[in-house]
Amino acid sequence: MKLKRNGILLTFMIGVTVLLVYTFVKTGTDNVNLDSISSNKNYNITQVKDHNPITFSLKPEWIFKQIKDKHKVFEINQHQIFLVSVKNRENDIYFSFHTKLKLPKKKGSFIYPGTIQGSGVFSTPREEIRVLTLDNKIIQTTQIGIGPSSDFSFGINKTDQDKIIDGFKVEFKGMKLYNYFLK
Prior knowledge:
membrane, 5-stranded antiparallel beta sheet, transmembrane helix, single chain
């Protein structure tokens, strides 16, 4: 009888210990998303750097084919930018990028292509994305899209295909660096 009671007590204590360790690890190391940080009044967000320009190149083999896998094109501070989609549309070729942000729950930093207001409102100027040939000549974009989060996309007119056949560069001057912490 005493052995059975000790076994139950030991099982209960192990269960409580596992639950406490899980709760500690979960609340201390969980990552959050950008929307929860910017819209939550429990976070303090400060812009650290106004223009944190990034530049990356796209390989020719990614341009004219439907890509099956995402391709990492840029990395900074454990944040990564991936080319996730290339669509040959009627009038242009449309490139979409996903930004993977590693955002620890308590504090950290992130890059965002625009300004985050205190109210959680986002704004992004269109002129911040430039597409360049490999010899640094500007290629006009047909369309630019921003969001959700730090994702972005743009189109290149099909009449400019000959300018990008060997690859091209993307210059994004609108990335801003922010720090945040849980109040």
